[in-house]
Amino acid sequence: MRLFLLPISTRQSLIYCQRINKQLSSEATFVDKITARASDIWLKWEKAEKGWKKKVTAYGNKLCETIPHEEWGLKSIPPLSRRRKEEELTGENHVNVVFPESIIGEEGVEEALKKFAGDERQDFHTKWMWGSIIGMPVTAPVALGAARSGSRHVNFLLDDRLLRLTTSRNLGLAYTEAGLDVSMTQLDQEVNRTLHGKVAGNSATETGMATEKMLLTPSSGKSIADIIEVPELEEHIHRAVKQVGKALRAKREWEEEKAKLDSVNKDAERKR
Question: What's CA 183's distance to the chain center, in Å?
Fold first, then answer.
């Protein structure tokens, strides 16, 4: 199988697994079969013109958007069956990690993978799985269970040093193109913020802290998916960019409000 590690921002990455040799349906794991069955049921409910099934799917799909992109990415990684474990240990089934070397180095790749495999992520899976049992689509609890299995698989690969890091020139070119789009988007945002009298710059930078910046835009998903010929990645990249971008905007707004409040307090102290 092949893992893709795609930086979304300067601090957050997306992980996705492309299964090169997919299992036959008769050899599919229990989790694969349950997930497929649940997906079929959900799709049938979505086609309902009205009634409780239509309402449940509409509400559930909205809630699914709140599931972090990390979970969706880890769900793509197959669980560690006994057979797969033996194949990976013997080298029969190689696991390559493809990444853009121009954006992230080998040390950065390993650090990012450790975040996906750590205890904190395992606890997160459990929390979200229990929270999704009521109200979420029937696929969600199963999907989150699969994400937990995927995280354990990554942990195994890291512990036994079975990952082969592979740089991709095409992926690097895709990020160069995406960087131009990000620069133009950020320039437009800065001009708009200045015109509306918002605080220029960033309070985190002013206090000496490194500022997290976006590396991709929502439109980057299609171009990257096309270049590396993995069409299903488009949806995952789009979701990740949307979630990370929203979080960064909220953080920046909070920092601006805090900077304004600090400025007001300083002025008040000087007048005393």
Answer: 21
| Inter-residue contact 16 to 224 (CB < 8 Å) | no
Radius of gyration of the chain (CA): 21
Give which of 239, 1, 234 is closest to 98, Cα–Cα: 1
173 contacts 227 by C-beta, under 8 angstroms: yes
Report pLDDT digits (tens) over 55-81. 777 776 676 677 889 988 898 898 888
Question: 230 — phi, psi (to 5°)?
Answer: -130, 80
For 3-44, the DSSP string reads EEEEESBSS-EEEEEE-SSPPPGGG--HHHHHHHHHHHHHHH
**Residue 206, CB-side half-sphere exposure with 13 Å CA sphere:** 10
Q: Checking phi first, is residue 98 left (phi over 0); if not, alpha (psi -120 to 50) or beta?
A: beta
Q: Report the alpha-carbon distance of residue 150 to residue 31 in Å, rounded.
A: 11
DSSP 118: S
pTM for the complete prediction? 0.76
